[in-house]
Amino acid sequence: MAIRPEEITKIIKEKIEHFDTSLDVSEVGTVIQVGDGIARVYGLSNVKASELVDFGHGVKGMALNLEYDNVGCVLMGADTLVHEGDTVKRTGEVISIPVGKGVIGRVVDPLGKPLDGKGEIAPEKNMPLDIVAPGIIDRQPVKQPLQTGIKAIDSMVPIGKGQRELIIGDRQTGKTAIAIDAIINQKNIPENERCICIYVAVGQKQSTVAQVVKTLTDFGAMDYTIVVSATASDPASMLYIAPYAGCAIGEYFMWQGKDILIVYDDLSKHAQAYREMSLLLRRPPGREAYPGDVFYLHSRLLERACKLSKENGGGSITALPIIETQANDVSAYIPTNVISITDGQIYLESNLFLSGIKPAVNVGLSVSRVGGSAQRKTMRKVAGTLRIDLSQYQELAGFAQFGSELDKESQRQIARGKRMTELLKQNQYAPLKVGEEVLVLYAGTHGYLDDIEVTDVLRYEKELLAYMHAQKQDTLDVLNTATELTQEVENKIKSVLDEFKTVFKPA
Amino acid sequence: MNSQNRIATVRYAAAYDALSQNIEQAEKNAQELTTATKVLEQVGSALQNPRLSGVQKKLILNETLKELPQAAAFIGVLIDAKRLNLLGAICEQVQTLLDDRKGISRAIVTTARILNAVQKQTAKESLSIRYGKTIEASFELDPALLGGLTARCNGELLDGSLKTRLEKLRQQITK
Asked: pTM, whole model, 2 decimals?
């Protein structure tokens, strides 16, 4: 309904009548030095750590270093607008972000301002960015599966709702692709189980973020996704708060009982931004020039991923942090830190990627420490030994390269391993439903592919799925919803696979 | 000034201030230090000159500050400790400590128009009631405030200006 003119006047009149004319008292200080996104302030003797301070000109800052005679602040805006001698006011607040239903489907900056030109977002609540993670009593163990739609991950490194699974690898190994696929796959999941997805871009190119948003929009995934963007050109302070902002948005929905999937892309840049700030604030540098509390920086963020207890509504935040390594070095400072914080890692390798294995998951080094108990029973039964089998295959394949003669069992293992490796390849933006994954993996682990050429495996999969969609949709539906692989279900799988064998024509 | 220097400044000033038994003496001592600082400015860089030994510097000091024995002794200590560069800051800090002893707070009152003597007195009295101290105010003019006044005192900004109120009104209406 349109707003009538007299209504506006009336509202304004009321507002003026109730206007607070009392004196505006604030504690103030003076800028003594400004530059590099940092300001030093004299005065503000009662300011608290992490408190938001107002520099005027629309620039806010955060008090981080409380020293004997000055306060070191990081600026959340252009430092060119702030001058020496300017008055700085305390606000008495900590930094917070406006959240609400309206934020779903939007691209926002870490302060909650829309970046997508789709107008203002109506806030329902202000969430402080730095919240202490829920305690032990408030949580329950991770037990529900979170389907990524990627065969290699759902079968071998399953992720549960409330888990923190690190995606780690060199540049150009498909780290973001896995996260985006997991977001797109939520479309395949019934609405009551679907996660609200949050993609936090830290220190990326504007063009990359635009590309991600476009991809998500094209696949209809923006309907349930929020993008928080702090790009490379933003001040380090914005990069620093971006993951906390994303998490705060997630927490708002989590406490309403919703499930959240949050991707931090990537935390290496986050650590670098924090290093930049810390060095400019003259905090002592430690290993690799990172400050001493860089572990706490990430642990307090990732601890906020959790599965709430039933009394608290049972919501969850699943975190997929991404770390970029240099030359496959996982023993650098930040990677080891984040590996030790998370509940497992998906390790992507450029060698595998270049030899055409995509997603380039290194089976031996990837683990999920809590996801196993959350894995769907159907999937667990089908893929139970897959990870170990593939590891053994890779070891054997190393020997086989020397051309030595192998016994029959080893030859069988190698043949099976080759086909399984081929079967686990998957195109980008093509996540599978859980039923499809179970069916395809069943075919692989139960020898249905053994008499098919390795080069035909992907065609087999594609045609099998097409056949199922065309003729056996009911069986797929059963597999999608089945929680247990009963004899009855298994018989159904066997019969369709046998049937398809007569249809499939090897090259 | 870095933190180390700041800490040193505060400590030297506190020590100098502690030499005085009562307010009158403190005022005299502070006055003496201010005068000594001004005198030394005229002596110029001689006291900073590395080619002069400490003994020579003290001779100059005793000669120039004959009538100011307390300040001369204090500055001698500063020379020994190689802290002469802090003298100006120490002098200011001693003044602040004296203000504390006398129960004085300094305030900067900014208005859009020039105040008459009565208005100035009213402003000072209101501030002294608020902070429970005698106020020594300096008055400044800033037409950008449009009306009303702002006062900075004790690290606080009391803002009763028309400019801020209009801004608050604008924010409230557009919210």
From this structure: 0.88
